[in-house]
């Protein structure tokens, strides 16, 4: 990997800019493909470029072949580099203290949101990005995309409901909400009154987490992380 | 984790060490690490990341040293069909193809 490529690749990742590194496995030459630009040792035909960008969007590294180039075909390897997945946690509660490091270990950039001053503190969440604005404002400001998971943990309708109103109308790949079946039934009624459709309500994973009989905050955090993983990796799961 | 590997590789390089980067480019069957998994190695034998469950890392380091010496990229295959299978093959019966390149 040439120095110029390494530096540009690291810079793009630092900036949170999606980029694919394309390597010609025959020559070792490399080219960076961004969503709107390309830079490096060789150019790409339009259809091949589109294939690389599609892989970038799907975050799917792998081999592609340029069969038109010559009879044997040039083998290219595409390595996708997307910004980390994000987990937005509403409620700087005890479970969140376990969930934040677990999610970070799993590769997520974690943000904890709680407007209650004594909850979202640096000492309770060392190294975690904290937001002390109201959940719906915070979630809107953080621009939820399809690589974002949202979990509400406060139990408090004043905090959870506004967050869910934003999350359910976003492209988030996972929305989970803590609370018993009874709590959740009441929550569904309230959200319905606010005009949330049945299809939107069906997106909520509740009671949150895989059913592993979790009891402690750490175990509940584990069940939540397992469920998020299942939803991301196994189509149609949990 | 992927982030750390490239940054670590660049960091080692900045310290003047020779560095090779290994990437899983294809897998067949039940290989332990998916396509895109990476590991970086320096000339002092430090390594970060993985390209299998520990089955082939030793052999990859061996190839990485050659790449650090001559600067040439290498493609190596591991698996049941490989004649080195007994020593470095994947116990799970999968096959992986690993691309090794120098970090300049």
Automatic annotation (TrEMBL), chain B:
Transmembrane region(s): none
- The residue ranges of the XdhC- CoxI domain are 12-79
Q: Which Pfam families match?
A: XdhC_CoxI
Q: Which InterPro entries match?
A: MoCofactor_Util/Proc, XdhC_CoxI
UniProt superkingdom: Bacteria
Annotated signal sequence is: none
What protein name does the entry list? Xanthine dehydrogenase
The scientific name of the source species is: Azospirillum argentinense
